Amino acid sequence: MLPTAHGEFDLIGYEACAGGAAKPYVVLSKGVLTAEPAPVLRIQSQCLTGDAFGSIRCDCGEQLRVAMQMIQTEGQGMIIYHPEEGRGIGLLNKLRAYELQDQGIDTVEANHKLGFDADQRDYSVCAEIVKDLGISRVRLLSNNPGKLKALEDAGIRVLERIPIEISPRCSTRKYLKTKKEKLGHWLSQV
Question: Would you state the pLDDT for residue 5?
Fold first, then answer.
């Protein structure tokens, strides 16, 4: 059990071996996940700066807290905490990308300048975790078409996509606009 400001949740730990290294995944869950209607699912990619430090450079931490509150209110759902920081480039490279962004380039261009794809995340382990929990249908809490596609490609039926938009602020407007225009995220407020 994990008591939080948003209610009590269950924690489940997974370890996945990929590329010769073990990566920890954590599932934060509430309620009977196989009950009807299908559970709300949030795949929260690790963002130390937003999730732990409360950065307003991105909306990641706010999305995590909104997802926790939605699941608490609904009484059923889960968050898979995906350990691929900085859209898969890692924490130190993310900090390098921040430095490039401070010089005026956007988040996608920064990743490219560092020699990475715009988004290097792989959601296959997340899909396997969903299956391991006996779930075949979800209501996905996301703005990212890549997450929806990965789940469906793995045979998990996404019954509904629930937007999780945080109102843009001066510090996030360019970042969110880039995610919409260059990564195809479903965002209506930018």
Answer: 92
Respond yes or no: is residue 121 known to be catalytic: yes
The catalytic residue among 51, 119, 153, 161 is 119
Terminal-to-terminal C-alpha distance of the chain: 38
Among 121, 122, 132, 157, which one carries the catalytic annotation?
Answer: 121
**Which stretches of 29-117 are DSSP H helices?**
60-74, 85-88, 91-102, 107-113
Q: How confident is the model at residue 37 (pLDDT cuts 50, 70, 90)?
A: confident
The pLDDT of residue 17 is above 90: no
Instruction: Determine contact, residues 25/126, Cβ cutoff 8 Å.
Output: yes
Q: What is the pLDDT of residue 174?
A: 84
Alpha helices in the chain (DSSP H): 60-74, 85-88, 91-102, 107-113, 124-132, 145-153, 173-183
Cβ-based burial of 74 (10 A; exposed 0-12, middle 13-18, buried ≥19):
middle
Neighbour count for residue 99 (Cβ, 10 Å):
11
Mean predicted confidence (pLDDT) in 153-172: 91
